[in-house]
Fold:
Amino acid sequence: MVEWRISDGLTDYDDAVATMEARVNAIAAGEADELIWLLEHPPLYTAGTSADPQDLKDPDRFPVHATKRGGQYTYHGPGQRVVYTLLNVRERGHDVRCFVQDLENWVIATLGEFGLTGHIRDGRVGVWIERPDRPKLPNGQVAEDKIAAIGIRMRRWVSFHGLSINVEPDLSHFDGIVPCGITDYGVTSLVDLGMPVTMADVDVALKRSFDTTMRRTTGQPLACDTSPPA
Structure:
């Protein structure tokens, strides 16, 4: 069983981490169900295990939280749907790489509910949206913006932290960091792309696409797709 929890208002980051820590231990011990936790945070920056201090351009703008999830700097704030994924990866293929790929596919399927095509790019963490309405990059490629970030941590084969999708955050808040250490691309949101959607709409899409993308097995290893991302 997977419990779905939606928290109203803005959830304090340290409180969220403490809640996740306790739930992960309980899941690993077989004392609690898996959990998908949907929430919003007040404006803040988080530093993953690969964060470069030079990528924190405005350290006094918002609180900065060091976290042991993978990845670099990212922003959380109102208008962004944070999805904490406390899931038993041992029972979902026993393969972290496949699990992260499933998270990516889950985000892409969710975006597809609104007629958007998300992309995974080699060497760039997260989910990206092509922007043909903007000038091409110096290398001639179509401009792209990031719409979702992914960063997880594992303990005893249970995942926590997870992903975030930009619904309608203040995009200027990303200016205080180099998001995920990537300088050549921008950040977008569903509303910025002209999608008149609410947080509740995104929650429905997330839940609807979860069962078709987040594989559950009997614990046998998965052969995940190793083809280059489109």
The chain has a mean pLDDT of 91.
